[in-house]
Amino acid sequence: MNAIVEMKSMNKFYGTHHVLKDIDLAVTRGEVMVILGASGSGKSTLIRCVNGLEMYQHGRLVVDGFEMPVEADRRLGGERELAQIRKGVGMVFQQFGLFPHKTVLDNITIAPMRVRKKSREEAEATAMKLLDRVGLRAHANKYPGQLSGGQQQRVAIARSLAMEPHLMLFDEPTSALDPEMVGEVLDVMRELASSGMTMMVVTHEMGFAREVADRVVYIDQGSILEIGKPDEFFDNPKNDRARSFLARVLKH
Amino acid sequence: MIATSIKWTRHNLFGKPLDVVLSLLVIPGVLWLAYTITDWAFASAKWDIVVQSLRVLMIGVFPADQAWRAWTASAIIGAILGAGLGCVFCFKPHHGLVLLLVPVLLLIVDGGLENALPATGIIASTILGWALTSYVPLSRKVLPAAAFTGFIVIVAVMAPPGVGLWGGLLLSVLLTLVTSVLSLPIGILLAFGRQSRLSSLRIICTWYIEVMRSVPLILVVYWIWILMPVLAPQWGLADVARGMIGFTIFYSAYVAEYVRSGLQAVPRAQTEAARSLGMSEFDINRSIVLPQALRVVVAPLVGNVLDIFNSAPLVFIIGLTDFLRAGQMILANPQYGDRTFEVLSFLLVTYFVIGSMITYAARKLEDHMATGTR
Fold first, then answer.
1. Strand partners, A36
2. Does domain B164-374 have CATH number 1.10.3720.10?
3. pLDDT (tens digit per residue) in B123-136
4. What pTM does this model have?
5. Phi-psi region of B3 (alpha: psi -120 to 50; beta: other; left: phi over 0)
6. pLDDT at position B374
7. Across-strand partners of A217?
8. A86 and B295 in contact by Cβ < 8 A?
9. pLDDT under 70: residue ranges of chain B
10. What ipTM did this prediction achieve?
11. Chain B contacts of A114, Cβ < 8 Å?
């Protein structure tokens, strides 16, 4: 089994609130998995568990060959596995998360220099290549505040790629953008998918999901209700709640 | 020109009935006050006392024949402050001309070189430092090291006649500088300690901050002054050093609170983004959170420096002669008994000028730090 992420009856609680219920899911290398669901269904929490931004309490989560410690173990200092996992997993956030006091170039080079101990020259050369790839080479020396939302999100993608991740997580990457900027970010993500990157994407862009995803996962109230090929899921959802969800989102 | 000012006056001062009443009451009052003060300042006040006692006001009871040591130290401080200003606020020739007015004025009023010469030296080195960092960006990089060396030199130059003799405005400024510089790193560590995951560290830091914030400064200074010789008799710390320690211990708690409010202002998303890149908690705090936090709290931190400067007179409790105390000493001389207003006015104006310069520099610093972020 060539899985990069493997969840076995994973459970997460916020206090007494059961957020993720017995999640079983495997992501194979090179796969693009889109996670759909209404807001509050737990889909963001699910992918935030993959790089340890959220802790889970029961079950098992293996990422890239490393076992993610459960909450009790992390309190005891299971931070080494966590650091190992995070080195190989990139994440793109809804609100970009760029560092406002650093230039675009410094935003991209800081992690490779600090974490991978690359030299400045090497890190900057890689950064310029990545900026080329997302079409922002000319903006290298600007500050994030001088860029549009779409441009900032493309910088954020380049910043994650600079760590040469094996897996990219996208947490609603286009939800904070003006409609006319959604396209440019989706184009970059499309290009990334076709280059063979493994991706887990939480999004409300149904067109993107249908076109790019290898598999679609539908989550409701913390449980996975349906996993399947996008065409099957969109044309012929088996679950009632999935059907009513699609009816609601596709109407607009 | 006149038409617009009449229009402005009518619009702003005599617009509504209430405005008219207020203006008729306030404007004559202000005019009368201005007239009285000007009349006193230029006609009846005898400023010669200030000029004659300038050395005591500036450097306290430091021996007159050793005064060059204190003037050298002042010149170094001037250079450091000027260089610091130059990093955020570019020097222009007219600034230099305004500053040079001080020694020229002294020369005219005093008629001798005794005060004008040191003043020229101090002003000149300030301008030199200011211009250097304004025009040679490379010099900004070595400023911290240079300032540290400068401070060592100050102590070395000033020490021989006896540390107990330091005083006057020089002591106030030194105390303010040392306290501000030392309390910043300590305050930052305390602020992080207060947020630490280690509960023992968190409790210690919280207690420290809360205790210091609920007691008076003068008590802390006095207490440290008494306690240091008991705790570390072999060090034989001078009063000045003990005073600086007391001030630093006290003001670190305030710095910690300001820094903490800055840390809380940094969005959680910043930490999460840095974590997702695999950065260590130390790197995240040092390179992502702290720079953004400090940017937010520049204004209160500079306000804190102003606070320290204005609290410096409290060191009289441990027998030090700061600027204000030096003024009192002069007045204690029966021969000058009728010059109270002159000396106190001079103190007031000097405190006001220095205080406004600090606030002005703070505004420049804020503008400087805001560039590029939004």
1. A218
2. yes
3. 999 999 999 988 88
4. 0.85
5. alpha
6. 44
7. A35, A227
8. no
9. 111, 371-374
10. 0.91
11. 279-280, 283, 287
Of A114, A157, A166, which to mutate for an interface test with B (greatest number of B Cβ within 10 Å)? A114
A141 inside 8 A of chain B by CB: no
- Could you read off the pLDDT of A147-178 as tens digits, one per residue? 999 999 999 999 999 999 999 999 999 998 99
**Chain A residues with CB-CB distance to B275 below 8 A:** 51-53, 86
Decide if A83 and B291 are in contact by the 8 Å CB cutoff: no
| Percent of chain A scoring above 90 in pLDDT | 69
- Positive or negative, the CA dihedral B148, B149, B154, B156 is positive
Nearest to A114 among B279, B292, B372 (CB): B279
State whether residue A13 sits within 8 Å of chain B by CB.
no
Domain edges within chain B: 2-44, 63-160, 164-374
Residue B188 near residue B257 (C-beta atoms within 8 A): no
The label of the residue with tokens 């050093």 reads B241
Q: Which residues of B touch A90 (CB under 8 A)?
A: 276-277
Do B269 and A100 count as a contact with CB atoms less than 8 A apart?
no
Please give the structure tokens belonging to residue B370.
């805001």
**CA dist list (Å): B169 to A2, A222, B59, B177:** 74, 68, 6, 12
CB contact under 8 A, B270 and A97: yes
Question: In Å, how far is B286's CA from the nearest CA of chain A?
Answer: 12
Amino acid letter for position B129: G
From chain A, pick out residues whose CB is under 8 angstroms from the CB of B274. Answer: 99, 111
List Cα–Cα distances, A251 to A206, A225, A238, A243, in angstroms: 11, 21, 19, 12
Question: How close B298 comes to chain A (CA, Å)?
Answer: 15
CA B369 to chain A, closest CA, distance in angstroms equals: 9
What's chain A look like in SS3?
CCEEEEEEEEEEEECCEEEEEEEEEEEECCCEEEEECCCCCCHHHHHHHHCCCCCCCEEEEEECCEECCCHHHHHCCCHHHHHHHHHHEEEECCCCCCCCCCCHHHHHHHHHHHCCCCCHHHHHHHHHHHHHHCCCHHHCCCCHHHCCHHHHHHHHHHHHHCCCCCEEEEECCCCCCCHHHHHHHHHHHHHHHHCCCEEEEECCCHHHHHHHCCEEEEEECCEEEEEECHHHHHHCCCCHHHHHHHHHHHHC
CB contact under 8 A, A115 and B277: yes
